[in-house]
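Quick one: structure tokens for this chain, please?
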Amino acid sequence: MKKTLFLCCMLFSVLIFAQEKSGAKQFWENLQKHCGKSFEGEVIEGTENDAFRNKKLVMHVRNCDENTIRIPFFVADDKSRTWVLTYENDRIQLKHDHRHEDGSEDKVTQYGGITSNSGSPTLQFFPADQQTCDLIPNAAANVWWITLDEKSFTYNLRRIGSDRLFTVKFDLTKTVATPSAPWGWKD
């Protein structure tokens, strides 16, 4: 009887602990499951003449460690963009690392934001941070968000107070060939 009661208490403790993980932590762990994999995407929302339409779009969850996930985002042969996610103090930060073909930083790089709360396991919001406001004054009203479920990853941008909306959706049910290193990286 004591053994059964002990096992029940242990199981209950495990269930309570699992439920105590924040949305940010669950989101982080779910994204890490895709490390090393590449996925093709498509523009769902955006202007008709944006630079991403009708091009092959690939994200590669290339580098994961305990607190940083780097996801290069390729637009056809353009390997200049990497989304850098950092997990710290139950918040996630999104930065955009832009590079030239020689690997040097673009003058417009390292913009993004940090979540204002722990979010949910499937959705994280990133309002523009002060560095972004200083670097790109028009982007002060930017909000980025990422949705993540078993089937898809979406990257979104909305400029509040404008019609600007951009969404690219990646199919997580089918991996694609891993591309070569993004600009500024080595294989």
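The radius of gyration is 19 Å.
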